[in-house]
Specification:
Elements lengths: L9 H5 L3 H20 L7 E4 L11 H5 L6 E5 L4 H6 L4 E4 L13 E7 L8 H14 E9 L18 H8 L18 H6 L8 E5 L9 E6 L6
């Protein structure tokens, strides 16, 4: 992930009506989080990969969650914008591809939105997910669905259905960042299910803009194993 994650919002900020559509999708993802994880005023949450770029679209958990003092944001910068906009949350700097700086089971829920597709290949995703589960008793993560007709980061339609073509077309352009697999992997519900051991299999659901298997987002849900 780049030190300045403004790159993740460039496309949507330039597309007419994108902000209102994203607001709807993120509201649906937040509602699913509240319904499935059932947090209380005592629930502690670690938001892994919280954005350094504070916009109307970024950090919607911090904007919508009622118990902000129980959120710890983990990001790769200094968190200045995030902390200024959300003074009640805690903030901890982390380093990509390194273990999270927390003891085992420090939190009730490990949460992230639109991060897993940026961590790398299968081994990097496995490390990210298992380390999240090391520090928390439950997991709620959302990612863009590769089968949604509009690619989230570039706003290009359907081209990402063929990843090699998508990467070839973008290579050497101003969107070259997204042509590299280490910066953007296309994730589907079937791929995510295949990467979990049967004994740990999460509940994987479509969310966001609801269109069945063409929905905008996918949620990975592992409810806390012990009462909160």
């Amino acid at each position: 992930m780049p030190a300045d994650d403004a790159v993740y919002y460039e496309a949507t900020e330039k597309v007419p009506r994108a902000t209102s559509v994203l607001a709807y999708a993120r509201t649906q993802m937040f509602r699913l989080f509240m319904a499935q994880m059932q947090p209380t005023a005592q629930t502690t949450i670690l938001d892994i990969g919280a954005s350094e770029h504070e916009t109307g679209e970024a950090n919607f958990l911090e904007k919508m969650y009622p118990y902000k003092r129980n959120i710890t944001c983990a990001g790769i910068g200094d968190g200045a914008e995030l902390r200024a906009a959300n003074p009640d949350v805690n903030y901890v700097s982390i380093k990509p591809h390194e273990p999270l700086p927390f003891p085992d089971k420090s939190f009730d829920i490990a949460y992230s939105n639109a991060v897993l597709e940026h961590v790398g290949g299968p081994e990097q995703r496995r490390f990210f997910l298992l380390d999240a589960l090391r520090v928390a008793r439950g997991l709620y993560m959302t990612v863009p669905n590769r089968w949604f007709p509009v690619e989230h980061h570039t706003a290009l339609p359907v081209l990402h259905f063929l990843p090699p073509l998508f990467r070839w077309v973008l290579r050497g352009t101003k969107r070259d960042h997204w042509s590299r697999r280490e910066n953007l992997e296309f994730l589907s519900a079937s791929l995510l299910r295949s990467e979990w051991a049967a004994s740990m299999a999460p509940d994987i659901r479509y969310t966001g803009i609801a269109c069945g298997p063409f929905s905008s987002n996918i949620a990975i849900i592992l409810r806390p194993r012990d009462p909160m």
